[in-house]
Design goal:
The protein contains 3 helices and 8 strands. By secondary structure, it is α+β, with helices and mostly antiparallel strands. An 8-stranded antiparallel β-barrel has the order 1-2-3-4-5-6-7-8. The radius of gyration is 22 Å and the shape is elongated.
Length: 214
């Protein structure tokens, strides 16, 4: 984490120095929110619902068509406990019946949980339209530092067992967006793919957001 923060600080100082010598295009602050759809691995895709996504970004410009983004994001995914319990019973009911004489349908089995991501990111945003155009189209790539946390609770006849997990992992994000004029402040639409390099399999999801440019 310390190395990441040092890198960001040095990078920001370089960009601010560049801006001091050439006011190419006005910097902008962006706030936007939307949804995040789990893609992988299978456990994440199958048992977590579409999450809530909140983003904030500050964009500095190296040239009229190249922006540097410094940002943070928060995603929260809720656990689909009903699907988890149904799949568990389908997979294990014969095993428990033949080995222990237990009928899983006779037990009150519930599952609940959540998974959230706090992200810090630095990236580049090339614009595909001229700086003078009223509407702006851009693509972007970003390196990210992700703080992951979550928990899953399974209860059988009101006897609960909870598993918690916390880890910090690096990742990448890539996507595209559209900025449109709307009175004094532009509005922005953005779609991005997120990849977090977790130990067993890469965790990935796609975010679709909209917001305001200041």
């Amino acid at each position: 984490m310390r190395r990441w923060l040092m890198f960001v600080m040095i990078f920001l100082l370089v960009i601010m120095s560049t801006q001091a010598f050439a006011q190419i295009r006005r910097s902008q602050l962006e706030l936007f929110a939307g949804g995040a759809i789990p893609l992988g691995p299978e456990v994440f895709k199958d048992y977590y619902k579409t999450g809530f996504s909140l983003h904030g970004q500050y964009v500095l410009f190296l040239s009229p068509n190249i922006g540097v983004t410094l940002g943070g994001a928060y995603e929260l995914f809720t656990f689909d406990g009903d699907t988890y319990v149904d799949d568990f019973i389908d997979e294990w009911e014969d095993y428990y019946w033949y080995n222990y004489g237990m009928d899983l349908d006779d037990y009150d089995i519930k599952a609940d949980g959540n998974f959230n991501v706090i992200e810090l990111g630095v990236g580049l945003r090339p614009y595909l339209t001229p700086a003078t155009a009223s509407s702006q189209i851009f693509i972007f790539g970003m390196g990210t530092y992700n703080m992951l946390s979550g928990e899953t609770t399974v209860s059988v006849d009101n006897e609960e067992s909870t598993v918690k997990a916390d880890e910090n992992k690096m990742g990448l994000a890539a996507g595209a967006g559209l900025e449109l004029p709307a009175g004094n402040n532009n509005i922005i639409f953005q779609g991005l793919m997120r990849f977090i390099f977790t130990e067993d399999e890469t965790t990935s999801f796609i975010g679709i957001t909209a917001g305001i440019v200041f």
